[in-house]
């Protein structure tokens, strides 16, 4: 199910999906900026989370933290998690989920911290290549 860029998706949506979509295998929630760890908790505790969910894309879900990764440890069929630009997810969180689900592929991007304002007052953003863990 591709819900990418559906900006009105909330945790309540995930509760409904967890109840009414027990055969869900892949879910893209990229750019759904209202999704939180609580929504992922409901999804991970559902039948689809426990038994079927293989792919979860959470790119640019700014409220997602390492707590989401802890919840996803219940998703035993999970093969791939996308976490590009999830600024509150840490390398330590990824390391923990990989310890519980050693076969899961975690794709994450860790942007460097925005540097202080440069001379002239404009802020520059630095980029580097994606890190696939």
UniProtKB/TrEMBL annotation:
GO cellular component: SCF ubiquitin ligase complex
Superkingdom in the source lineage: Eukaryota
Database matches in InterPro entries: Leu-rich_rpt_Cys-con_subtyp, LRR_dom_sf
GO biological process: SCF-dependent proteasomal ubiquitin-dependent protein catabolic process
Listed PANTHER family: F-BOX_LRR-REPEAT PROTEIN 2, PARTNER OF PAIRED, ISOFORM B-RELATED
Protein name: Serine beta-lactamase-like protein LACTB, mitochondrial
Record organism: Platysternon megacephalum
């Amino acid at each position: 199910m591709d819900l990418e860029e559906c900006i009105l998706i909330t945790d309540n949506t995930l509760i409904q999906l967890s109840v009414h979509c027990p055969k869900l295998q892949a879910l893209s929630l990229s750019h759904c900026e209202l999704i939180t760890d609580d929504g992922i908790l409901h999804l991970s505790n559902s039948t689809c989370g426990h038994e079927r969910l293989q792919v979860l894309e959470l790119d640019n879900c700014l409220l997602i933290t390492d707590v989401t990764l802890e919840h996803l440890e219940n998703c035993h069929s999970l093969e791939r998690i996308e976490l590009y630009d999830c600024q509150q997810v840490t390398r330590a969180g990824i390391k923990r989920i990989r310890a519980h689900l050693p076969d899961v592929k975690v794709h994450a991007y860790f942007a460097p911290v925005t540097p202080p304002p440069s001379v002239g007052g404009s802020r520059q953003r630095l980029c580097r290549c994606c890190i696939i863990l």
